[in-house]
Specification:
Elements lengths: L14 E8 L9 E3 L1 E2 L2 E6 L2 E6 L13 E3 L2 E3 L6 E3 L5 E3 L8 E2 L1 E4 L2 E7 L3 E2 L13
Antiparallel strand pairs: 1-12, 2-4, 3-13, 4-5, 5-10, 6-7, 7-8, 8-9, 11-12
Bound molecules: FE2/S2 (inorganic) cluster.
Length: 133
């Protein structure tokens, strides 16, 4: 998608806005993996939608599988925690941040601004979003 999602949504240098899907598809206490390479996921953080790279920086494991409390996700493999707003690790063993991505909600739909280098499926919220269909 090359057009901006809606009025007041600004272009983000080096990124393209993509419609991820309906806001009501995002669960309350867990992440939802998007169909991108590399993998990204969206979270509902106290009513605010946030998007991060999905792979834990400690090892190769999905953060969408993690436990979410407030705006922190805990990786279920070795229990590192990440701030969903900044991507920063807040608890070991992870020491590197995960990338965060701008999000906008327009008319009940979620849009994410992903780096142009990311590969994106046409239906980002389609179940079984491993890789590209
Ligand atoms: S893979 Fe996430 S904490 Fe080890």
């Amino acid at each position: 998608m090359s057009a901006l999602p809606g009025p007041g949504i600004e272009p983000v240098k080096g990124r393209t806005w993509h419609r991820a899907g309906p806001l009501d598809r995002i669960p309350q206490d867990e992440g939802l993996v998007l169909g991108t390479v590399p993998r990204t996921s969206v979270f509902n953080c106290d009513g605010e939608v946030l998007c991060i790279d999905d792979t834990c920086t400690h090892e190769d494991y999905s953060l969408a599988e993690g436990w979410v409390e407030g705006c922190v996700v805990e990786c279920t493999l070795h229990l590192a925690k990440f701030n969903l707003k900044t991507g920063a690790p807040v608890s070991p063993p992870a020491t590197r941040a995960v990338a965060t991505h701008p999000v906008a909600t327009v008319g009940g739909d979620v849009y994410v601004a992903l780096p142009v280098s990311y590969l994106v499926k046409s239906d980002l919220m389609k179940e079984n979003s491993d890789g590209l269909a």
